[in-house]
Amino acid sequence: MVSVLPVVLALVLVAVFSLDTLLLLVTFFTPLSLPLHDLIPGLSFDMFLPTEPLMVGILVLFLFKLAEQKQFDRDILKHPVSLALYFYLGWMLLTSITSTMPVVSIKFWVSKLWFIVAFYFLGILLFRDKKNIYRFIGLYCAAFIVVIFYAWSRHLGYGFHNDNAAHFVMNPFYKDHTSYGAMLAFFIPFLIGITFSKDYRQRYRYLAGVGLTLFSMALVLSYTRAAWLSLAAAGAVWIVMKLKLRFQPLFLTALSILALVLIFQTQILMFLEQNDQESSANLGAHLSSMTNVTTDASNLERINRWSSALRMFEEKPVLGWGPGTYMFQYAPFQLTRNRTIISTNSADGGNAHSEYLGPLAESGVLGMLSFILLVAVIVYIAVHAYTRAKDREVRLIILSAIIGLITYLVHGFLNNFLDTDKAAVPFWGFVAMIVMFDIYTKKEEANKRAIKKPE
């Protein structure tokens, strides 16, 4: 205990005199953080060390400063993304109070709060210095590369052709290959942007290129089908944005496709049931197994979790069961015919496997809609900030942030990780970048109009 005291005092001093440094330090530690349960088994609660205790401190410091100064940047507080966040957090707090397990839900809500305060509200202030954006990306990626080499060293012992080993070789840093793959896909757009842009110095492009190569190889060897799909979907969004296609016809096309899927869902399901390809070390076969809803245990378990979430929603459609309670409450809602060889009653295999159905079960219909609204506002603001920006470097950062977020939002249909530091830190960090540049480009545009306005 005595030996830890100097480190704690040093962190307190950093927090007081250089909060930016502490935020960047947390960023670096995020890929390397470890769950408390792994260090001290048998505890009734869990958190990631050292990141979450540091974010608790940042939250407390933020609240003290807010109480003392009684002010915060109004452009941030009144921003549309912030307003959507208030609704999202407010409804989550209400359903935490009405929760079937209030203690669990309040803890869950508070953990969301320290992620958002640290890397959204304070993140916007951090990223006003553009250099901190590159420090944020570089520190997370540098620490992530350590995890990649750790995972490869373990994977090598089983043979890289062993797709089953790929599920756990990144443990304990990442719980399994799905969260690991999701974050690899998340940062690849930024690495591509820097690598192939002529606006950066050669050494930065070289470092980004090395990172891109390592991340791409790690993504392939992770055997994470959802991450592969999310990156492909994000690539399609990138093409749409680069071609400057109009939103309305794209929206109508997406709506038409969704309508066709609903109308012909029986025929589509019958077609998918003809696919009996299992997960495999063969990349083509592994990708093909994504649509196997007959025998692939991973796919069937997702359907089991989604079905359970929908039945939970049907029983409590307005207020839900309470944030963070899905893993404790879903077991009775599993149907015998939906259970698989990897089904469990203790949720040790993950939660609802959806960023959208999870809130539906835990916070009711407004829980899901509040998250969808938040996502819609973020994307809307991002696209307009990108269109408004004139500086090539700013446009590249905004575009990379949008595409990175898209990879996660697509991945969110199949998995959910925003309750972990691994995903929450970069997710809210990227949102903060977009909001910061939205405020900046609006002010820049207003200043230009003021200059051109005749006296």
TrEMBL record:
Does the keyword field hold Ligase?
yes
Task: Establish whether keyword Magnesium is in the entry.
Answer: no
TM helices/strands, residue ranges: 42-64, 76-94, 106-126, 133-152, 178-197, 204-221, 227-243, 250-272, 365-387, 394-411, 423-440
Q: Say where the protein is mainly found.
A: membrane
Q: Provide GO CC annotations from the record.
A: membrane
Q: Which organism is it from?
A: Sunxiuqinia elliptica
| Keywords, comma-separated and alphabetical | Ligase, Membrane, Transmembrane, Transmembrane helix
Location in or out of the cell: Membrane
O-antigen ligase-related domain location is: 212-372
Q: How does it sit in the membrane?
A: Multi-pass membrane protein
Q: Which GO terms describe its molecular function?
A: ligase activity
- What is the protein name for this chain? O-antigen ligase
| Source organism, top-level taxon | Bacteria
